[in-house]
Write a sequence for this structure.
């Protein structure tokens, strides 16, 4: 089992940290994912994180969630209520382009 470490108040597995550092070293890749999320939300939104992930071909919503969080901090996307997620079946937050 990989070690859990604290990065800026967030607990992260060592393997996740490696993936994070690799992605952070490539700002163009991050911008590309931001652009994909924004375009998909403009076309199909509002959507849940899992719906965004599935629509963009990611099997894990954790590939999308950090990038969507960054967009939310920049106020490019905002919460748009809640509803039952079409992927998970659970009530989830909806996101739309600001």
């Amino acid at each position: 089992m990989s070690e859990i470490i604290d990065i800026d108040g967030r607990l992260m597995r060592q393997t996740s940290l490696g993936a994070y550092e690799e992605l952070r070293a490539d700002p163009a890749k991050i911008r590309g994912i931001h652009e994909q999320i924004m375009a998909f939300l403009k076309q199909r939104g509002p959507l849940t994180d899992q719906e965004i992930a599935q629509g963009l071909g990611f099997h894990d919503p954790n590939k999308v969630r950090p990038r969507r969080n960054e967009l939310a901090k920049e106020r490019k996307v905002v919460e748009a209520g809640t509803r039952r997620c079409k992927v998970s079946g659970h009530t989830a937050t909806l996101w739309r382009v600001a």
User: Anything to note?
Assistant: The chain has a mean pLDDT of 88. Strands lie at 4-7, 10-13, 77-84, 91-97. The chain has one domain: 9-97. The radius of gyration is 14 Å.
